[in-house]
Design goal:
Elements: E1 12-16, H1 21-31, E2 35-40, E3 55-56, E4 59-60, H2 61-67, E5 71-75, H3 80-91, E6 95-98, H4 104-108, H5 112-118, E7 123-128, H6 143-149, H7 171-194, E8 198-203, H8 204-209, H9 213-222, E9 239-243, E10 248-252, H10 256-266, H11 269-272, H12 280-285, H13 287-298, H14 303-313, E11 317-319, H15 323-328, H16 330-334, E12 338-343, E13 347-352, H17 376-382, H18 387-395, E14 399-400
Parallel strand pairs: 1-2, 1-6, 2-5, 6-7, 7-8
Antiparallel strand pairs: 3-4, 5-14, 9-10, 10-11, 12-13
Helix pairs in contact: 1-7
Length: about 400
């Protein structure tokens, strides 16, 4: 077992999750130092192993991204011997993560009420499409569906009358995983004080809703549902993307102080004197006209030229980078957000880093994602299975071990 640091060092996590939301939760905990044991199904493992392309020499890039820093074992939970393996792991676990449909774990005998009898301190994190209560509790969950039902797709896109647009990233999957990790950390703090575990219940649906704070504030205050505004902001202007002579720039002159600074940079007295643009309320009321006037000016110079001028004046601005440009950006690298890690079969591979920095207990990416069944023998030995018992489990098809 590789020694790892981080504020959650020593926390034992069993991840019974697949594809994205649950694995994101496990990823966050692993990056902060927890020992996350990913239990994959037999046969085949996590479905994201088959999200091909892209791959690196046959290993799915998507699986490797979300499962680095974890140890992996393969267990057949429809096999009685496989169930006994999982029971032993869960008996001393601090946390279990699962993202199955509402009754799946209960049918297998691993629901929260059953597990807490043997392990009252267990933190049971359930991440699903719609949560464990309410009229949609039995529905399966997918990011696209959650984005639509949470209101996100009604506020994303170029404008009214255009087709609905989802956010490019699977934001409800990722956010649900982050919310799960936040809740696990809070529940673990409670456990340290009381010894008590508890069940955590969050969903893709709620993960989408929390991204509508500004738009929900508008809707609840006015009764009017806000619509899509492209890159513009629903409350402040100018705060959006503008085309330059050779690309695009994001401008964040979202308060009066920055607006006045922007006017100095633009050297456009006609805009400064236009009553439609005096205060933020005026600019929001005439947002289309404002964007048209500013666009005429921004297309006159290059992105780099504008960025230098705006930075010198203290106006928040930045380029619109593609993903590869973001990976190569010096600030990305300085913040250790692209790092290299060793994979058991591929050797050094690049992945994304930990987005939270700790001064006293730094976490980080230590190991690459496991190949299928890579740590089965290692983990079972730690939990008291001798070599003969492990070979017997393999022969029965209860577990799969690599090598």
């Amino acid at each position: 077992m590789v020694e790892r640091g981080g504020p959650l060092k020593g926390v034992k996590v069993i991840e019974l999750a697949h594809i994205m939301a649950g694995p994101t939760c496990g990823l966050m905990l692993a990056d902060m130092g927890a020992d996350v044991i990913k239990v994959e199904k037999v046969p085949g493992g996590d479905d994201s192993r088959r999200f091909l392309p892209p791959d690196i020499d046959g290993e799915a890039a998507s699986f490797m991204m979300l499962n680095r820093n974890k140890r992996g074992i393969a267990v057949d939970l429809k096999n009685d011997a496989g169930k006994e393996v999982l029971k032993r792991l869960l008996k001393t676990a601090d946390v279990v993560i699962e993202n199955y449909r509402a009754d799946t774990m209960e049918k297998l005998g691993f629901g929260y009420e059953a597990l807490r009898k043997d392990n009252p301190g267990l933190i049971y994190c359930a991440i699903s499409g719609f949560g464990r209560t309410g009229p949609y509790a039995d529905r399966g969950g997918f990011d696209l569906i959650a984005q639509g039902m949470s209101g996100l797709m009604s506020i994303t896109g170029e404008g009214e009358g255009r087709p609905p647009v989802k956010m490019g990233a699977p934001i409800t999957d990722i956010t649900a995983g982050i919310l799960g990790a936040m809740a696990v950390s809070a529940a673990y703090a409670h456990k340290l004080k009381t010894g008590e575990g508890q069940q955590i219940d969050t969903s893709l649906f709620e993960a989408g809703i929390v991204h509508t704070y500004w738009q929900s504030a508008i809707g609840l205050a006015t009764g009017i549902a806000p619509g899509p505004m492209g890159s513009a902001h629903p409350l402040n202007a100018p705060y959006q993307a503008f085309k330059t002579a050779d690309g695009w720039i994001n401008l964040g002159a979202a308060n009066q102080k920055n607006w006045l600074r922007l006017l100095d940079v633009l050297e456009a007295p006609e805009i400064a004197e236009d009553r439609r643009f005096k205060e933020n309320s005026d600019r929001m009321a005439h947002l289309g006209e404002l964007a048209d006037e500013l666009s005429k000016i921004f297309t006159q110079h290059s992105t780099d030229d504008w960025l230098q001028r705006l930075e010198a004046a203290g106006v928040p601005a930045g380029p619109v980078l593609n993903v590869n440009e973001m990976h190569a950006d010096p600030h990305t690298l300085a913040r250790d957000m692209v790092v290299e890690v060793d994979h058991a079969r591929l050797g050094p591979v690049k992945t994304l880093g930990l987005p939270v920095k700790f001064s006293e207990t730094p976490g980080g990416v230590v190991t690459g994602a496991p190949v299928y069944g890579q740590h089965t023998r290692e983990v079972l030995a730690e939990y008291g299975f001798d070599e003969a018992a492990v070979e017997d489990l393999i022969a029965k098809g209860a577990v799969v071990a690599d090598g």
